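A common beginner's mistake is to predict each chain separately and then try to dock the pieces by hand. The better habit, illustrated here, is to supply every component at once so that their relative placement is modeled jointly.
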Amino acid sequence: METELIDKLVTKNDKKIIFLIMDGLGGLPQSTGGQTELEEAHTPNLDRLAALGTCGLLDPVGYGITPGSGPAHFALFGYDPIEYNVGRGLLSAAGLDFPMAEGDLYMRANFATVDAKGVITDRRAGRLATEKNEAICRKLQEKINLSSGTQAFFIPEKEHRALVVLRGGEFCAEIAETDPQKTGLPPLEPVELTPQAKKTAAIMRELTGKMKDVLQDEETANAILLRGYARYRRFPSMAERFGLKPLAIASYPMYKGIARLLGMTLACATNTPEEEIQALQNNYPAHDFFFLHIKYTDSRGEDGQFAEKVKVIEKIDALLPDVCALNPDVLVVTGDHSTPAVLSGHSWHPVPVLLAAATCRPDLATVFGERACITGGLGRLPMKCLLGLALAHAGKLQKFGA
Amino acid sequence: METELIDKLVTKNDKKIIFLIMDGLGGLPQSTGGQTELEEAHTPNLDRLAALGTCGLLDPVGYGITPGSGPAHFALFGYDPIEYNVGRGLLSAAGLDFPMAEGDLYMRANFATVDAKGVITDRRAGRLATEKNEAICRKLQEKINLSSGTQAFFIPEKEHRALVVLRGGEFCAEIAETDPQKTGLPPLEPVELTPQAKKTAAIMRELTGKMKDVLQDEETANAILLRGYARYRRFPSMAERFGLKPLAIASYPMYKGIARLLGMTLACATNTPEEEIQALQNNYPAHDFFFLHIKYTDSRGEDGQFAEKVKVIEKIDALLPDVCALNPDVLVVTGDHSTPAVLSGHSWHPVPVLLAAATCRPDLATVFGERACITGGLGRLPMKCLLGLALAHAGKLQKFGA
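With all components supplied together, the output reads:
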């Protein structure tokens, strides 16, 4: 495997690498003959970097495959996104900094509303207030005791979201999700999907039955839907694999979770891009790899707001000189996947990337945009290969063979 | 494997995909500084589609590998051309709609002429008349009885070609071909190539001996040469893998055979591109994937007729508006491989491709040609990845991971 060869060639030095990740960066034109969000944006600083550096287009998982943020970020950090595909529950647990242990089963939960017949009328319980969520989780934690030594944990997240954990046995994740992913249906039964999962399914039935009892008096959050089951899994860290001392600067739990799973140090809480860059400056001496995550490009894409996504890109461009002022040895600017505003969601289109370093070979791209990146020297390549290229440009890889 | 991941992400909808395949489309200039057949052709309709859509270059099997039509078509339909490489005998059997059964051994046969010493003087028996071929096959069928319960079938194809089938046992395909592929040599012995093939080789020797006896009085077709041995093999259908209801519109047996092996429905017999497009229009409501095969680009290339190949491309371009008028959600125009007229045969050069869909990302290609496709947004990619891209652009693939 390509990544394994890279691992064997790693050599340490004090060169610094910054990955500036604009989530969902890639886009599409609003109409025939138009420009993408990135092409439309006025980005003199990114364009200058693109002209100096090497550009290309990244496929997060494979041709035609639309990735979730999990697989896409694993690929960005040099981890094969198929091999390291993990359930959402594990990412939630890591994002919440839940003290994970071998054997645990993690589940993503949504509080939901069901009618008198038990049919789901709102999968998000009216986007429940976070305080209410916290109160209900406390109630579940107090009242629910499972038989046969199994412990359940109920950890609130924002709004209607929560993490449910089972501990005290060797659980199996091959259980049907109880979230039917749409309204008009009752929650599904957590039946076993393989014979090995029979024991876990029995515990899950006990759990869902007792949760139902506790929730029945709630007004809106009178049901809970489970999905994204995942067992605990230990990942080889970026320190182990690449000899890096990585710092993650991200404000959303899921991205923090991925960073934790890969052994990154997390910067103190940040909310705005300005705060994120401040955190980068403050922590610059102590690390040699920096993952700086900008969520808003994706959010505006998801919301279908073309002009707003353009503005976010322009804002980041305006902040770029502060990043460049640190003189990183390698500066990579890219996204984890495309989120074209016209599709209001993730897509399979490749993601523009620029890599700026003193060791870059110049190419034909003179601005940063999807079309310009076609003429980039990196060509079109799997996203999981990007980290190896960054290490190479930072002099962190030895020669292969004599 | 990438293709297996695609399979898992398939979701059905009523979007329609057309694959317009100009066999052997890719070409080469006739002389230094010249244009390829596709570049030379006046193709305003293809150029318009290329400008609107996304272009690229496909490698049918791998860098430098010249594919036969079998592997190239498997790749077009998303089947790994190395994993699914099958003997020509099986393709012939499928093309003739021979009722195949488990255990059968299929062989491609050529009637040939040998001299008094048994040396081949013509590998095609003077391109035997098809009626004569039919008469000889009837004679072989009547006169040849094999021992130990093995049945042999002799099925005429066009001119000097036939299909020979062994049934009634578990045969082994690892037997030497008896066709030496050139004149001046006698037919070869069907010796076993592995110890496991010993029993089959004995039956093959009985078969070739008895065929020789029957044919010895023939004037021109006094020998038969066997090659392309293949055992029966069941393929996962395009319906099973991709949830498609595919229709094949092709006039040559081999392409029909591949379509049958992959579970496509075959349109009624068609002979001209006009009839093929008529068949497309007639069957449009009942299917969601259409394989429209144009043979003549390849034939003119094989014959070394540059100007004639250009004319075929121009003719298809003129018919293109009738295809576009159906408003397919995804329209792909490409070839299965390159057949440059200057080489009078298949070649390893990548094949230009255009993919037009509302969900396309525009690129730098504004005309359809080999050079323009270098600036296409698809880049250069394995042909087997094309179908996944078509599915993605038609909204037929779910997101991978959370």
